[in-house]
């Protein structure tokens, strides 16, 4: 096309692509019960039978004629008179008028411009727009001049026979049809990231140093409508330099497909075409001069004969040896060579690095940079002559020399580890729900420190013991206090019997253990009567004789009438102060822990037969906490720095675990039985796995002594409480695969209790079925978290 292309909103793609771019006798029954695409032909703009190549094949002659016309016009050549005479005027009219427009329109459609062009049809020199020859319209003299081979005065074209008739007009502009100046060079920011202009209303500068404003691209709704309605959406790209849409033609799409498939962009280009040898390989021996050779050049030299004889003798004597390794040995003797040169000795160096390149100057180094590159302390100069000498020239040269001297010559595998890469990727807390997050009910009624709480197995009632010598029974759903019992001593421990056939509460005070039936109007009368019937008369002991060692340690008694009226059904008296009582899962056996009892610190009891037994003849260390295994007949005994696991059926020590704590305060067994949790007064929480206790998991997120740890029976949750007033709820997922460590993630920190005498949260208890947590504190309140 000769005319200039209109500047439309969709610019040609060629201009964009051209620029860039895881044995006891009684515990025998302990173990009895267990618990649209543009490549689709149907969606293409041009039918398969109407691709551009088809038009070129049918009308190749017309295209060739037009191409010849362009070439002749650009080179300033004239048409041969004989060729012009051999074409009729009708043929000339068809080529210049109809066929030229048809072909040119098809070429324009390939460029993606569907609008009408203002370009005029190309008319060869000497043929007017009507298709008639200029010579026909001229005078007889002009016609005669053409026939005779004279020069036309107006056109300056000489038409004569053969090659001699061609002549170039001096006034003819050979660059008239050149469209190279039409290249879109409006944005002149150069190789600069476009994101630098995100905060500016313009996106660059044009050739006249004027700002180019950003076009309005529309919002997301416009983008959606364009995607639904525009049939050319799949073949439209955005020019980053001008922020305009560019519609790719079929030829452009073909080029992109070939590039993505690692093929040559031009399908007509043959990469394996035969090599054309423009120069001969035959050596032509030519003398340097034409002077004839001298006569002595034909006579053998005597000096050369003597030299050859001497060399032959030295070779025979072995003084001279020739080897093909001589060259390699010489190369090995080289000690000095250029580090950055392409030397053969550097071939053994793998992954060799090239010499570092100096940093190229940027826009800020210009004497007249754009305003966005200028700092406040910089100075702008009006011309290059006013720019002073560079003050850091010598320093830059010295730095460049250091770069070449110190820079590495070989790639070395270096592991760069950042601090955040060493931390595990933890999930978000909302993905680990449910867990308690908010404070629900506050149980108020005690007047002193609450040291122990216990939730009934059915989850309806809550028992609490305090230093105010009272035991209170609460309704979980409403927070009401149903019963209050005055026991006369500070309560150390309260715990419900896990059996569903008894409504029984064990209360530990001083050196006594009281078994109470805290009957209320909310409890079924049948369950209350059944519990009272069990303890009306003591069981028959038969021939059983209690050992002296046991008799002096514990005594079973029936309550008086006054005590019976208060709900007490059995009284156990011990020789020392009792600190803890734990039930076996069946509800018939229980164990008591006496810290000052020495070798009688742990005593086993059977509720149905009123019998007691000392399981250990000797116990090393001071007992701190005891706990039953949830599934197996195992007993966990925690001393100050060790946890011992005993098998009650086989009556032997199963495992001894050393805990990295100075003083153990609490112990909890996982419902699965394969893990247990230990809390210490030295602010540590340690997670152990029964199969591999050598490397426990240490949790250090408390700042003061840890008072209580506990597991939830149903959900993968555990909680820890300390004297600092914080209760940490954590997600603890365990796996059946022993090779996979448990997944521990703290998910919530609960605060609400206040300190009293440097004590805060002393007891924790989970709801048996719901993710609810009960906390008892030194501020005489119990709080429910849900």
Please describe the structure with a list of short key phrases separated by commas or semicolons.
single chain; disordered N terminus; 19% helix; alpha+beta; 786 residues; five-stranded antiparallel sheet
How would you portray this structure in words?
Required for maturation of ribosomal RNAs and formation of the large ribosomal subunit. With 786 residues, this protein is α+β, with helices and mostly antiparallel strands. The protein has 16 helices and 34 strands. It has a 5-stranded antiparallel sheet with strand order 11-12-13-15-14. The chain has a 4-stranded antiparallel sheet with strand order 6-34-33-32, with no helix packed on it. A 4-stranded antiparallel sheet has the order 7-8-9-10, with no helix packed on it.
What portion of the residues fall into strands of 2 or more residues? 15-25%
Q: Considering DSSP H and I runs of 4 or more, what fraction of the residues is helical?
A: 10-25%
Which blocks of ≥5 consecutive residues have pLDDT under 50? 1-168, 178-184
Outline: elongated
Distance between the termini: 79 Å
Averaging pLDDT over every residue, what do you get? Answer: 76
For the secondary structure, the number of strands is 34
Structural class: alpha+beta
What would you call the quaternary organization? single chain
- Can you summarize the main beta sheet? 5 strands, antiparallel
Placed side by side, the strands forming the largest sheet appear as 11-12-13-15-14
Radius of gyration: 51 Å
Number of helices: 16
């Amino acid at each position: 096309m000769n005319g200039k292309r209109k500047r439309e909103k969709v610019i040609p793609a060629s201009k964009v692509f051209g620029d860039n771019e895881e044995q006891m006798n009684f515990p025998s029954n302990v173990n009895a019960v267990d618990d649209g695409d543009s490549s689709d032909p149907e969606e293409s703009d041009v039918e398969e039978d109407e691709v551009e190549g088809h038009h070129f094949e049918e009308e190749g002659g017309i295209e060739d004629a037009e191409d010849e016309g362009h070439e002749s016009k650009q080179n300033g050549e004239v048409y041969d008179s004989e060729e012009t005479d051999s074409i009729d005027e009708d043929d000339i009219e068809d080529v210049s008028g109809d066929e030229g427009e048809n072909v040119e329109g098809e070429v324009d459609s390939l460029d993606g411009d569907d609008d009408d062009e203002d370009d005029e049809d190309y008319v060869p020199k000497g043929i007017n727009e009507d298709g008639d020859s200029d010579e026909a319209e001229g005078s007889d003299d002009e016609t005669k001049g053409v026939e005779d081979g004279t020069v036309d005065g107006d056109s300056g074209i000489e038409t004569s026979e053969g090659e001699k008739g061609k002549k170039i007009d001096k006034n003819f502009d050979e660059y008239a049809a050149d469209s190279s100046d039409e290249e879109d060079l409006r944005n002149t920011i150069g190789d600069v990231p476009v994101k630098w202009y995100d905060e500016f209303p313009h996106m660059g500068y044009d050739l006249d140093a004027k700002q180019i404003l950003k076009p309005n691209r529309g919002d997301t709704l416009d983008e959606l409508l364009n995607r639904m309605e525009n049939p050319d959406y799949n073949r439209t790209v955005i020019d980053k330099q001008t922020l305009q849409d560019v519609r790719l033609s079929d030829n452009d799409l073909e080029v992109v497909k070939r590039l993505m498939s690692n093929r040559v962009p031009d399908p007509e280009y043959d990469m394996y075409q035969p090599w054309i040898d423009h120069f001969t390989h035959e050596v032509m021996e030519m003398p340097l001069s034409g002077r004839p050779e001298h006569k002595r050049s034909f006579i053998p030299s005597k000096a050369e004969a003597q030299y050859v004889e001497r060399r032959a003798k030295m070779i025979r004597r072995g003084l001279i040896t020739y080897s093909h390794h001589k060259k390699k040995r010489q190369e090995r003797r080289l000690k000095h060579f250029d580090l950055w040169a392409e030397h053969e000795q550097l071939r053994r160096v793998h992954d060799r690095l090239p010499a570092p390149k100096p940093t190229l100057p940027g826009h800020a180094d210009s004497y007249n940079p754009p305003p966005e590159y200028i700092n406040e302390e910089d100075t702008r100069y009006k011309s290059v002559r006013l720019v002073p000498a560079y003050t850091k020239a010598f320093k830059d040269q010295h730095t460049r020399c250091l770069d070449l001297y110190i820079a590495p010559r070989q790639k070395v595998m270096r592991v760069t580890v950042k601090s955040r890469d060493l931390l595990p990727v933890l999930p978000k807390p909302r993905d680990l729900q449910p867990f308690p997050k908010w404070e629900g009910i506050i149980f108020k009624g005690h007047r002193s420190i609450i040291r122990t709480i216990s939730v009934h197995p059915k989850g309806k009632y809550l028992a609490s013991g305090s230093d105010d010598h009272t035991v209170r029974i609460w309704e979980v759903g409403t927070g009401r206090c149903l019963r209050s019992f005055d026991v006369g001593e500070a309560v150390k421990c309260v715990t419900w019997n896990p059996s569903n056939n008894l409504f029984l509460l064990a209360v530990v005070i001083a050196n006594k253990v009281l078994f109470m039936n805290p009957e209320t109007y909310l409890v079924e009368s049948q369950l209350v009567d059944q519990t009272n019937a069990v303890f009306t008369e003591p069981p028959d002991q038969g021939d059983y004789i209690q050992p002296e060692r046991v008799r002096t340690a514990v005594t079973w008694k029936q309550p008086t009438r006054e005590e019976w009226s208060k709900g007490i059904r059995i009284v156990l008296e011990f020789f020392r102060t009792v600190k803890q009582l734990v039930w076996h899962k069946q509800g018939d056996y229980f164990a008591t822990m006496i810290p000052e009892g020495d070798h009688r610190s742990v005593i086993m009891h059977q509720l149905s037969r009123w019998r007691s037994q000392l399981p250990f003849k000797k116990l090393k260390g001071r007992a701190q906490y005891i706990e039953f295994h949830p599934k197996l007949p195992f007993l966990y005994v925690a001393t100050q720095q060790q946890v011992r696991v005993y098998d009650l059926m086989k009556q032997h020590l199963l495992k001894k675990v050393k805990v990295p704590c100075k003083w153990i305060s609490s112990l909890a067994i996982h419902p699965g039985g394969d893990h247990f949790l230990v809390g210490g007064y030295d602010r540590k929480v340690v997670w152990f796995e029964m199969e591999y206790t050598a490397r426990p998991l240490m949790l250090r997120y408390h700042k003061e002594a840890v008072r209580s740890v506990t597991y939830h029976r149903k959900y993968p949750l555990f909680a820890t409480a300390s004297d600092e007033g914080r209760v940490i709820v954590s997600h603890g997922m365990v796996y059946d695969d022993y090779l996979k460590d448990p997944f521990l993630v703290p998910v919530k920190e609960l605060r609400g209790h206040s300190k009293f005498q440097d004590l805060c949260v002393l007891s924790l208890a989970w709801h048996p079925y719901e993710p609810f947590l009960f906390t008892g504190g030194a501020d005489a309140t119990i709080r429910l978290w849900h």
